[in-house]
Write a structure and sequence with these properties.
Length: 519
């Protein structure tokens, strides 16, 4: 049993507002936050509903993800009694803020259509190549043939066919044919970037990134970024206020650097992009670093704000609820809805917190992570990976049977595939205890927060322990025979749990579990 990781501060924002009281008024009261979103035109989609804050496009721009993370981070540090200059690791779960990318392509409908909607073929590839050059080398969701992205610097979707990415050194999510990224993908150091594609945190001499496609934090000497397609910050190659600057927040690692810089924190920075377990994975990694004695303080964060690109993808996958509600574990559940979520928590070693007189809010006793790799999008039908992660966390907490658990905050997406599999996974991990432990899904009120789900639900679980109130599963109508646990339907429940479990799952079969205990 580790028992040496404590929570000393947090900051949080959801569609209900900022802070714990907003959660108490919404999540803990069982009031869903779903409403038609006005951030973008929802006319082309099957539903306009999301758990998004009632702010128009201008306010959303002001509450860009970087600003939301910084504000929540400042609140977390203030609660913990820490400030600028603190030596703390920053671990962030995020996929980036793609709002500016979407707006860019919306302003160029002909090029966007050529890049993202035309099928394989030479003509589409040539159009994509021209679009990539005009756009400073960013070809999102490119699906095209020969010649795609030969001179494009970043291919952010799929590029198929011969020659895709011959001069594109960064091809995230690239599914391409012959010749993808023939140049080196990462060549840091002096003269890095002459043939290398990525120069992270580039601080180097003459010639750095002359032909590099992406310089993440370029601050170099002569000729730095002369031919770099995208110079995200600083350096002679930067274009203040230009296309590259507007795209900067779409790079997840960039947001971690911005957060650490804004808060004045020193220490390592790590970014996790593994979908709906990203911020939970950040917390788990921080716990490992603290419990092993490698660091004393970690600032963990996660964020997602509803935006059109992801909304459109989930809509096209028919994953969004048809009736404007999320009904986890209910027989008539029909899908998920997205929601705003940003949270930051401060984790410390218990000894470090004691030395400086910090008040522990709760402790993290156990953690587990497992990947069953059953399917790219569907969970293992028996919840195998989730059960394995849960067992790991319980063993580390010194409670392999879950005898001390008083509450489980479930992943509970409200989809047909997830909820039955999750129920079976909990039964496998908790055996005869499963039926007697209250389980609820707070996505029924907050919506699915994607990369931020783990950390927001971590905070909600902590509040359930400290407040003695279990948040309900809202929207529950009638039982489903394959979902046969106590789901705390529709109304909050007074309780006195000392320990609680929070679990999350993600595409690719990734699963996480965390065990918390109140002081």
């Amino acid at each position: 049993m580790s028992g040496d990781v404590t929570i000393t501060g947090f900051g949080i924002r959801t569609a209900f507002g900022t802070g714990a009281d907003a959660l108490r008024r919404g999540v803990f009261a069982g009031i869903p936050a779903f409403r038609p979103t006005t951030r973008f035109d929802t006319g082309p989609y099957r539903t306009p509903m999301a758990a998004a804050a009632p702010d128009g496009p201008d306010a959303v721009e002001d509450w860009a993800l970087r600003h939301a993370l910084a504000r929540c981070g400042a609140e977390a540090l203030a609660m913990a009694g820490l400030g600028p200059g603190t030596e703390a690791a920053v671990l962030l779960g995020v996929a980036g803020d793609h709002t500016s990318v979407t707006r860019y392509w919306r302003s160029r409908p002909e090029e966007a259509a050529a890049v993202s909607t035309r099928g394989p073929g030479t003509d589409a590839g040539r159009t994509a190549e021209r679009a990539g050059e005009r756009a400073g080398g960013v070809v999102p969701n490119g699906v095209a043939g020969e010649g795609v992205a030969r001179n494009a610097d970043v291919v952010s979707g799929r590029a198929a066919g011969e020659g895709a990415g011959r001069k594109a050194d960064v091809v995230p999510n690239g599914v391409a044919g012959d010749g993808v990224a023939r140049k080196a993908d990462m060549v840091p150091g002096e003269d890095a970037g002459r043939t290398g594609g990525v120069v992270p945190n580039g601080v180097a001499g003459e010639g750095v990134a002359r032909n590099a496609d992406v310089v993440l934090n370029g601050a170099g000497g002569e000729d730095t970024g002369r031919n770099a397609g995208v110079v995200l910050t600083g350096g002679p190659g930067a274009e203040p206020g230009g296309v590259a600057a507007r795209f900067a927040d779409a790079v997840p690692a960039r947001l971690a650097e911005l957060l650490a810089g804004h808060l004045g924190l020193t220490g390592p920075r790590l970014t996790f992009t593994n979908a709906c377990v990203a911020s939970a994975a950040a917390i788990i990694h921080a716990c490992r670093l603290i419990s092993s004695g490698r660091i004393d303080v970690a600032v963990c964060a996660g964020g997602y704000l509803v935006e059109e690109e992801t909304f459109g993808k989930f809509d096209s996958g028919r994953a969004l609820s048809r009736d404007g509600m999320v009904r986890p574990f209910s027989a008539d559940r029909s899908g998920l809805l997205l929601g705003d979520g940003v949270a930051v928590v401060v984790l410390e070693s218990a000894e470090h917190a004691r030395r400086r007189g910090a008040r522990p809010l709760a402790s993290v006793l156990g953690w587990g992570a497992a990947t069953d790799a059953h399917h790219i999008a569907q969970p293992h039908p028996e919840g195998a990976g989730l059960a394995q992660a849960t067992r790991q966390a319980l063993r580390l907490a010194g409670d392999p049977d879950g005898a001390a658990l008083g509450y489980v905050n479930a992943h509970g997406t409200g989809t047909r595939y997830n909820d039955g599999a999750e129920t079976r996974g909990l039964r496998a991990a908790l055996a005869e205890r499963a039926g007697s432990i209250p389980v609820s899904s707070t996505k029924s009120t907050t919506g699915h927060l994607l990369e931020a789900a783990g950390i927001v639900e971590f905070v909600i679980t902590m509040l359930a322990l400290t407040d003695g109130v279990l948040p309900p599963t809202a929207g529950f109508t009638r039982p489903d025979p394959e979902c046969d646990l106590d789901y705390v339907p529709n109304r909050p429940r007074r309780a006195d749990p000392r320990r609680a479990l929070t679990i999350n799952a993600a595409f690719g079969g990734a699963n996480t579990a965390l065990v918390l205990e109140r002081p």
